[in-house]
Recover the amino acids of this structure.
């Protein structure tokens, strides 16, 4: 069956936009064809610095004929109704309609309208221009030909269906069967007859690797091969690799040399200078992992000298960048962190919350209070907090904002600060994403918690909470960071107490501790759901009001295991029955039942056996809960299954004797309260 080939050729498309644009373009075409009942076989989409391409094979040559039926009024309907039906159906005479019979309603009119199918080429000639005109780019510009906005000026449109040109015009740019290759090595132009010819000409004389995966493999394999003779390896960088894939349509990997003295700079500075300004990959020694005095550049041209001049030119540019970095590095070390910290008073943090210096004072005080709770040195935690933001005014961080905290660590080490202080400065922003590790040393944990909780307490006092999908100050990320730090380090603190220490007043408002705790609970739910925990079990444990996140998670895990076995399921069913009876009776009697059952009022052996089992189970569970052995607590409670089943099979709770009825209800209270010691079973599904 026929194939479709579409290529949009333009000036350089920003690398970050290419991958999404190619999938969006393919999706728009397949969706547009589907509206006409047209579906092909495989859909191939490709993109590069100057083109988007879609190939769809096995497309029908025409869309199918359509027959539509419009039901009309009864044949006995008033003339006005029949006229309205004729007008709506496009009939000039009612005789053009069919008459059908309904066993109940009688005869009625039906307009049968046939719509012949269209040639696929005709459909494409209208569809592609519409897609191009309405295509969304993050940024676009006018091409100069008319009203069309495109990411960069559109230069050619190639559109073939079944080997024939699909002809259309977009602001004077007429589609055809011509494409261009590499600007230097094989510009062309090239006339193509089908998709196979298109790929063959561009990948051959055109010197273009159309597929992103092919360009990626070319770079990865080339980098490994060029590093091998020097016994070094390139520092893989997934983000940078995706970017250079979009910068070169005929990638050539070249290794260059840099001045070894620049390696005295922090490795992060060297790598970021390469990455941010020049799009180079760093190189390291295989044995030590230390940076080597080389860099890798991906060129878009195959040089006759093997890339020697390209490497030399890039080395000069890199040297200039690194000279600037060395100047910043030397200046910042002369100034020192304490002097930098003094400048923070001149930088606003947030209206209502003062300057960054004001925030530093709050974080330092809170870090000192948190430190003893987690086994950290309070003096070191306070010192780290006072220096943590200082590098924000450094020249290096001004040039490379990504290095905030990282440079502070280096400056702290240079100044002879304690290693724990230096590490806390570097790690106090963490985690800034779901995959970034959390701080793991006590001093670092104390400062990171203090920084995030201070921010949350302050914004809650301002009344500026996240709403819907909007979270301009990344407060959800901060709260989730607190959750991860506590759980992944097994840190046992009362979150309510810590928030209370951070609570502040801004004008007439102050931090709503309970509301902020609920916000943390939502983040904990998200974290546990992502880990595969049942949402109802999380709610059941949170329903107890605990604020020790480690304890909450242990309870959820034990509860999850408990309810996976038959005893747990049956005990849950028994609890639900007991709770429902209590709820109904308390509503009827207008009171809440509290108290201890009296054994003298037991009339049946099943009551005595259940109460004895309850007493033993609740005692064992209480001891286990005190030791935070939640698994043993569940095991103790599981012993209630059989006596509880026997109780409900033989005992009528609503006895005719009021004192016996009351006593039996108290047995149910003991069941409910015993299980609530572990979790609010009422919130568990089932």
């Amino acid at each position: 069956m026929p194939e479709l080939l579409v290529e949009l050729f333009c000036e350089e498309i920003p690398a970050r936009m290419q991958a999404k644009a190619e999938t969006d373009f393919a999706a728009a075409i397949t969706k547009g064809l589907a509206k006409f009942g047209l579906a092909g076989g495989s859909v191939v989409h490709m993109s590069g610095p100057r083109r988007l391409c879609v190939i769809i094979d096995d497309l029908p040559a025409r869309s199918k004929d359509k027959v539509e039926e419009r039901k009309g009024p009864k044949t006995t309907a008033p003339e006005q109704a029949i006229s309205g039906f004729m007008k709506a159906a496009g009939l000039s005479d009612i005789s053009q309609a069919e008459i059908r019979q309904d066993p109940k309603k009688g005869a009625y009119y039906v307009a049968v309208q046939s719509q012949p199918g269209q040639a696929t080429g005709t459909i494409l000639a209208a569809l592609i221009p519409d897609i191009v005109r309405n295509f969304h780019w993050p940024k676009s510009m006018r091409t100069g030909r008319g009203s069309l906005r495109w990411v960069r000026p559109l230069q050619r449109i190639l559109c073939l269906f079944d080997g024939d040109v699909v002809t259309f015009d977009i602001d004077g740019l007429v589609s055809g069967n011509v494409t261009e290759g590499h600007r230097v090595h094989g510009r062309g132009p090239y006339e193509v007859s089908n998709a196979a010819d298109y790929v063959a000409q561009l990948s051959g004389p055109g010197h273009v690797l159309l597929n992103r995966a092919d360009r990626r493999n070319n770079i990865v394999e080339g980098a490994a091969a060029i590093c091998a003779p020097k016994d070094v390896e390139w520092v893989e960088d997934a983000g940078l690799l995706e970017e250079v894939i979009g910068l070169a349509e005929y990638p050539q990997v070249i290794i260059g040399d840099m001045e070894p003295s620049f390696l005295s700079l922090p490795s992060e500075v060297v790598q970021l200078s390469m990455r941010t300004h020049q799009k180079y990959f760093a190189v390291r020694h295989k044995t030590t992992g230390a940076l080597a005095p080389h860099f890798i550049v991906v060129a878009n041209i195959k040089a006759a000298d093997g890339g020697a001049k390209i490497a030399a030119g890039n080395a000069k540019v890199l040297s200039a960048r690194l000279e600037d970095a060395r100047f910043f590095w030397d200046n910042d070390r002369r100034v020192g962190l304490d002097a930098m910290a003094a400048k923070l008073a001149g930088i606003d943090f947030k209206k209502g919350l003062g300057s960054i210096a004001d925030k530093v004072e709050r974080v330092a005080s809170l870090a000192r209070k948190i430190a003893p709770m987690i086994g950290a040195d309070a003096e070191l935690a306070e010192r780290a907090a006072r220096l943590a933001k200082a590098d924000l005014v450094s020249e290096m961080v001004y040039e490379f904002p990504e290095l905030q905290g990282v440079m502070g660590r280096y400056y702290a080490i240079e100044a002879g600060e304690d290693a724990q202080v230096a590490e806390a400065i570097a790690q106090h922003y963490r985690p800034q994403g779901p995959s970034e590790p959390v701080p793991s040393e006590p001093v670092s944990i104390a400062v990171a918690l203090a920084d995030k909780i201070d921010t949350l307490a302050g914004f809650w006092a301002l009344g500026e909470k996240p709403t819907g999908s909007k979270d301009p100050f990344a407060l959800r990320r901060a709260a989730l960071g607190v959750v991860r730090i506590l759980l992944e380090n097994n840190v046992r603190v009362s979150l309510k107490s810590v928030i209370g220490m951070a609570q502040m007043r801004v004008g007439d408002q102050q931090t709503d501790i309970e509301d902020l705790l609920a916000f943390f609970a939502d983040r904990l739910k998200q974290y546990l759901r992502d880990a595969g925990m049942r949402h109802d079990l999380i709610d059941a444990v949170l329903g107890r009001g605990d604020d020790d996140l480690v304890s909450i998670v242990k309870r959820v895990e034990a509860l999850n295991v408990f309810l996976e076995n038959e005893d747990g399921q049956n005990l849950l069913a028994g609890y639900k029955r007991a709770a429902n009876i209590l709820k109904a009776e308390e509503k009827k009697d207008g009171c809440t039942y509290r108290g201890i059952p009296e054994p003298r009022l037991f009339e049946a052996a099943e009551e005595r056996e259940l109460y004895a089992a309850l007493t033993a189970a609740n005692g064992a569970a209480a001891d286990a809960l005190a030791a935070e052995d939640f698994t043993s607590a569940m095991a103790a409670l599981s012993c209630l299954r059989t006596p509880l089943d026997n109780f409900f099979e033989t005992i009528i709770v609503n006895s005719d004797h009021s004192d016996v009825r009351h006593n039996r209800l108290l047995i149910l209270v003991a069941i409910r309260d015993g299980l609530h010691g572990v979790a609010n079973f009422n919130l568990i599904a089932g």
Observations:
- The CA atoms of residues 87 and 93 lie 10 Å apart.
- The chain has five domains: 4-62+119-203, 66-115, 212-335, 340-532, 560-683.
- The mean pLDDT is 91.
- The longest helix spans residues 308-335.
